[in-house]
Design brief:
The chain has 387 residues and is of the alpha+beta class. It folds into two domains: 231 residues, 3-Layer(aba) Sandwich (Rossmann fold); 137 residues, OB fold (Dihydrolipoamide Acetyltransferase, E2P). It is built from nine helices and 22 strands. Strands 6-7-8-3-9-10 form a six-stranded mixed β-sheet, with helices on both faces. It has a five-stranded antiparallel β-sheet with strand order 13-12-11-14-22. Helix 2 packs parallel to helix 4 and helix 3 crosses helix 4.
Length: 387
């Protein structure tokens, strides 16, 4: 067992395709680290460099304090679980799990012992004499994991292992993989594009975009304190609402302006955030869907006018898509990414209870939870939070 350290690791394909750019990341011994991001963000390339399947262009990569840049994959003592199970169809479950040990020259008794132990952990004892075609997708994935477990490696590397499973089975296997990892207490690097997997499985989550590490933290910290607009919009389902607004300042108070609608910024944010001091500056305002609240009392401070554009009933909750509208019911003025004034709906999503009586076309007054405001720089997208 060992820790893993990426120190300024980069991977460049050809002359100028930088798949991973200056990645520095430490995975503690026994930690479950998830690399998450959209397709093409560099997460799988980072994992393949760790496995030795891709050469490192620059930087150093260490496992257990030993630099492994030039160490062959077979000598790194890591085990990889792929998206496709890569099982030998003509072998039984026991033979598949023990094949690497047999090749390594271990005795038949030792192979049987290790396979039996792994099968117990993976709840595969009753399937050891079956062949892969007689197993479900989840059982095949457990066999692939068993093949890795019997080797007792320093680290587990998993590349989107649940992508081929249906939704219900993915939920079950998430729990199973997390259980097994806790039981074995081995450093694990898990790659996925699914932020729900990342949030529910990782001790910490590393968010990547365009080959660059955006933020690494515990799942809850990422959710509550995203470092930039990308993390805010990627982590969470549905993601954070991000609305461009003007910030007016004066007499010690700040106000967000959306078209003709105004929302006062509660006191205290000027101390915790580096808000623009010049009145009329643009800012990106963020609010989570669960922090958009319907108000029924007339004249509620901070309430704004919206119209229901769409509703999605999910059983336990309803997602309500709202457009900001001015007093006369027309769409609020918004500012596009180039700073131009445009007439189009500014849409935000609110989470509501399963029996909320809202219909498409309804006019609703909503309020933003004053304790959950987020602010991002309108140019760089970086969080303006300082403490």
């Amino acid at each position: 067992m060992a820790d893993i350290t990426f120190d300024g690791v980069s991977k460049v394909f050809g002359d100028d395709i930088r798949a991973v750019d200056n990645l520095s990341l430490h995975v503690a011994d026994g930690e479950f680290m998830v690399l998450v991001g959209p397709s093409g963000c560099g997460k799988t390339t980072a994992l393949r460099m760790l496995a030795g399947l891709e050469e490192i262009t620059s930087g150093t990569l260490s496992i257990g304090g030993v630099v492994v840049n030039d160490v062959l994959p077979k000598d790194r003592d890591v085990a990889m679980v792929f998206q496709n199970y890569a099982l030998y169809p003509h072998m039984t479950v026991a033979q598949n799990m023990g094949f690497a040990l047999k090749i390594r020259g271990e005795s038949k008794a030792e192979v049987q012992r290790k396979v039996s132990e792994a099968a117990t952990i993976l709840r595969l004892t009753d399937y050891l004499e079956r062949r892969p075609k007689a197993l479900s997708g989840g059982q095949r994935q457990r066999v692939a994991m068993g093949r890795a477990i019997v080797r007792n490696p320093q680290a587990f590397l998993m590349d989107e292992p649940l992508s081929n499973l249906d939704a219900q089975l993915r939920v079950e296997m998430r729990l199973e993989i997390a259980r097994i990892q806790r039981l074995l207490n081995v450093a694990t690097v898990y790659v996925t594009h699914d932020q729900i997997e990342a949030m529910t499985m990782g001790d910490r989550v590393a968010v990547m975009r365009g080959g660059v590490l955006q933020q690494v933290a515990t799942p809850q910290f990422l959710y509550d304190h995203p470092a930039n607009e990308f993390v805010a919009g990627f982590m969470g389902s549905p993601p954070m609402n991000l609305l461009r607004a003007h910030l007016e300042s004066g007499a010690g108070e700040s106000t967000l302006v959306f078209g003709r609608q105004r929302v006062a910024v509660p006191s205290g944010y000027d101390r915790t955030h580096a808000l623009p001091t010049e009145s009329g500056s643009d800012v990106v305002f963020g609010i989570r869907p669960e922090d958009v609240e319907i108000v029924t009392e007339a004249g509620t401070v901070g309430a704004i006018s919206t119209r229901v554009e769409r509703r999605e009933a999910l059983g336990a909750e309803i997602l309500v898509h709202l457009s900001l509208v001015d007093a006369d019911g027309t769409s609020a003025i918004t500012i596009d990414d180039n700073g131009a004034v445009v007439l189009r709906p500014t849409v935000l999503v609110a989470k509501m209870g399963p029996r909320a009586d809202v219909k498409v076309g309804d006019a609703l007054s909503v309020r933003f939870n004053p304790e959950r405001f987020h602010f991002f720089d309108a140019g760089s997208g970086q969080s303006l939070r300082q403490i």
